[in-house]
Amino acid sequence: MTHGRLPRVLAFDVFGTVVDWRGPIASESGLFLEKIGHGQIDAGQFTDDWRKKYLSGMAAYAKSGRAFTILDVLHREMLEATLRDHDVDPATLDPALLEDWTFAWRRLTPWPDTVEGLTRLKRRFPIVTLSNGNIALMLEMARRGGLPWDAIMGAEVTRAYKPDPRAYLGTAEILGLAPEDVCLVAAHHHDLAAARECGLKTAFVARPMEYGGRAAPDAKLAQDWEWSAESLTDLADQLGC
Amino acid sequence: MTHGRLPRVLAFDVFGTVVDWRGPIASESGLFLEKIGHGQIDAGQFTDDWRKKYLSGMAAYAKSGRAFTILDVLHREMLEATLRDHDVDPATLDPALLEDWTFAWRRLTPWPDTVEGLTRLKRRFPIVTLSNGNIALMLEMARRGGLPWDAIMGAEVTRAYKPDPRAYLGTAEILGLAPEDVCLVAAHHHDLAAARECGLKTAFVARPMEYGGRAAPDAKLAQDWEWSAESLTDLADQLGC
Question: According to its UniProt entry, what is the function of this protein (chains A, B) (predicted)?
């Protein structure tokens, strides 16, 4: 598709797009489940259950009327709910262990092309996060993984969770830009669709391993995005970086 | 003075501490004054007058009851007020020129030791801004000057201007840290004094050229800060980076 003028800023979804979540969370959850004496629970299934609570939780957040609460706190609540679903009472567990387990989301690892791709894209475009992750989470992840963000933006800065339009529009506004000057880069069609509704440009990055090789839950929402890339280095090629 | 445990994050004042403002603003203002046919106005004096409005404006902000407004907007208002003080009616000028002049604050230049100092400090500590500058301003300045921030925080993120305690405490809270785990690095005693009141650690960096070699207006507020350095590279030496 023709994509007209280039964006002035690239704003990135992070979980799944920039870093892998399923591999690292399953790996850490396996160790934690073992540690609490529940090694029989399947860590991959546990991880998918935890993530499913996130996806439905975020979609419902704006309607819930709940005051903005950072993702570290929601991740903890969702971990405890997932444990209960698996017949484990989190009240019997060490709170420090639960916090450490929750913070596994701060320790996610970049996809193999991520650091090179971001570094190249950054030469030409400011690169910012437009993630639901809170600032402390994004900061720790960036330092561990060498993610060279120009700024950490998104949910905590706008006080709204994607796919709430305020998360996208607020990020553009804070940057002092019109929505069409910002391009969301994401591996998720539902995220890109919400950004396009707000007038942002859109760049899809395929992450076939996000769900361990299975189809993504939003595959049916695919559209003809302004850019479509196989990796962040491929996106850098396409954008002339 | 003994300074006990090391901080976990270094949070930087920017205007005057990380970048020079007087040289670049006087230089750009000289060109703009010439352009609008008022080359007879002394650009250095004009710059000091503009900055004075900022210093008094920020000190009074919390009491003013005004809803949070980003610094780019306040810089513009203060520029227009400074022009009026010099008998120039800003309503007669091109708004695009006034915006460009205002954005001179986005184009400030790092002190000679800044990039090396920040780069070394960043190896050991997360480095964030704790400035009154808004995100778009800090982002543009960082990309122009090569300032390797881990995150842009401060006024726009906390919705409060230093020296309002909420700017310091809110930054620590968003980082998920106790105030004493954050160290403000600043060239200004009044800023450090306000941070210390909030429980933050403090590091003074001498910037004798900030006022063109004249004494700083807050020199009388000097205290025995946890660290006191001649430059950011000196601070890196002292912190073992």
Answer: Catalyzes the hydrolytic dehalogenation of small (S)-2-haloalkanoic acids to yield the corresponding (R)-2-hydroxyalkanoic acids.
